[in-house]
Design goal:
The structure holds 2 protein chains of 2 kinds. Chain A is mostly beta strands. In chain A, 0% of the residues lie in helices and 53% in strands. Chain A is built from no helices and 11 strands. Chain A has strands at residues 5-7, 10-13, 19-24, 31-38, 42-50, 53-57, 64-68, 74-78, 87-94, 103-104, 108-112. Chain A starts with a strand and ends with a strand. Helices cover 0% and strands 53% of the residues of chain B. Chain B is mainly β. Chain B is globular, with a radius of gyration of 13 Å. The chains are: A mainly beta, B mainly beta.
């Protein structure tokens, strides 16, 4: 158990809908990263937050957004969902801004029908 | 320049054998190279990592070999066990960003 928690574990929704994925980092970790894992694209970095502020963006669609709250949990919001958004979404956390390992949560499996 | 190329895509090894997975990168700014192990239905778990100032790092049965001039690194699993059957991802990052760039993954099956 990495200490990173994610909810829900599974999510099934229809095209055009909006969902929110939640991540709680390990105790004491200030950085949260979001990754998407799909069969065709592999594991891809989406976005990073550090202590409430956005720090880096990767291949994140404009339909997707994220935030990190004062208690350091983070939410990834996916809107206008398409079939191609079906994937595993992982968050990872680390203590600081740089220089140490990232620990991954168990992921949320999103299925868009 | 951000890519990390991983091979092979899949690997079958007999119990007790050596599993070898290779990765190559292009971006010379990368300064941290972790390997993750992922079981079905689980998140990636950090296995072992190396920084480019050393050419080899060993932890138990797992060894990373690093060739800075060739921009290549590899994972060796000695005495492979059926419990090692999983998907392995190499990754690379510049530590000041932490953004991990992953290889495509290698599915390892260790036959008893």
């Amino acid at each position: 158990d990495s200490g990173v928690t994610q909810t829900p574990k599974h999510l099934i929704t229809a095209t055009g809908q909006r969902v929110t994925l939640r991540c709680s980092p390990r105790s004491g970790d200030l950085s949260v990263y979001w990754y998407q894992q799909s069969l065709d694209q592999g594991l891809q970095f989406l976005i990073q937050y550090y202590n409430g502020e956005e720090r880096a963006k990767g291949n994140i669609l404009e339909r997707f957004s994220a935030q990190q709250f004062p208690d350091l949990h983070s939410e990834l919001n996916l809107s206008s969902l398409e079939l191609g958004d079906s994937a595993l979404y992982f968050c990872a956390s680390r203590k600081g801004l740089a220089g140490d390992e990232q620990y991954f949560g168990p992921g949320t499996r999103l299925t868009v029908t | 320049q951000q890519q990390v190329k991983q091979s092979p895509q899949s690997l079958i090894v007999q119990k007790g054998g050596i599993s070898i997975i290779n990765c190559a990168y292009e971006n010379t700014a990368f300064d941290y190279f972790p390997w993750y192990q992922q079981f079905p239905g689980k998140g990636p778990a950090l296995l072992i990592a190396i920084r480019p100032d050393v050419s080899e790092k060993k932890e138990g049965r797992f060894t990373i070999s690093f060739n800075k001039s060739a921009k290549q690194f590899s994972l060796h699993i000695m005495d492979s066990q059926p419990g090692d059957s999983a998907t392995y991802f190499c990754a690379a990052t510049a530590l000041n960003t932490g953004k991990l760039i992953f290889g495509q993954g290698t599915t390892l099956q260790v036959k008893p």
